[in-house]
């Protein structure tokens, strides 16, 4: 990159403005107005002074539209890679993630992929595909007598981005095929700390207002203060939600508010052996906002222009107008459901977009995507 490029000039009446002579604090304010990560990267490539500001502020970039990590026909012949899909532009990106063939990707948090080893699923590691150095972190071995290696890890959420806080982050994990245990790990520790067993059957976990929030199968939410993670403070912050048709529950932070998204199942009787199969795409969603003062949930009829991206591995909220093509007042759901995978074999990944306003669901499959018992992952790009 040219370290001394020609000044960027703009004619303003009879004067010529040299943008490169703007004070650093003004340029920094301009950079803070950029929303999409691609614009921020282009900003940092203008010249060396602007690149320095980019480097200083890159960890403070606003919430990004997540990509969907999928398997395509190209990946089927090369199991060491995965592809990214832009759900708004409906195109597969020309960017492949190298993943060690002995690892299974199970989720993401702050742009870091969470993986387990095929041979021993108690070994957990973090990988940031957007970084070229310092992009891997190995977490301690998971020890528990309550479950086997099968489907040992349901979800891991990080309190902070390890890129900017390598020695000051906490990981919270939901463990077991039945979400039967919670565990936490603080950077620098040599082992996981396991939380009381009575806090089990948790369906989702979110880091919100300096605490971890977990929702159980009945919609009740608990807050975990892990500043002293060996002696955590646990409080109940919401009542249950009486919703018998809710199959999954997700917690999402959206502009400072805590939302609970209930995915509704529609159960159908199919097949010669009369098996019940849950078709979750057709059930829709209900979204509730927590009133912490009134200790109650308020059902939302719209999302005030926001879009929610939910799934078993991540939950993200963005302002739809910041990303052209993103549908406001909608819930985007990735296909992380496996009940029919063995019958279907290799099939396209499905994505559902549910409109709260119209109570309608749109489904589409990324062109060229393939599903071979590998879950899709929402991942937010970070720098």
TrEMBL record:
Pfam families: Beta-prop_KIB1-4 (PF03478)
Superkingdom of source: Eukaryota
InterPro entries recorded: F-box_BR-signaling (IPR050942), KIB1-4_b-propeller (IPR005174)
Domain KIB1-4 beta-propeller: 84-355
PANTHER family with a match to the protein in the record: F-BOX PROTEIN SKIP23-LIKE, OS07G0183000 PROTEIN-RELATED
Protein's UniProt name: F-box protein skip23
Source species taxonomy: Eukaryota, Viridiplantae, Streptophyta, Embryophyta, Tracheophyta
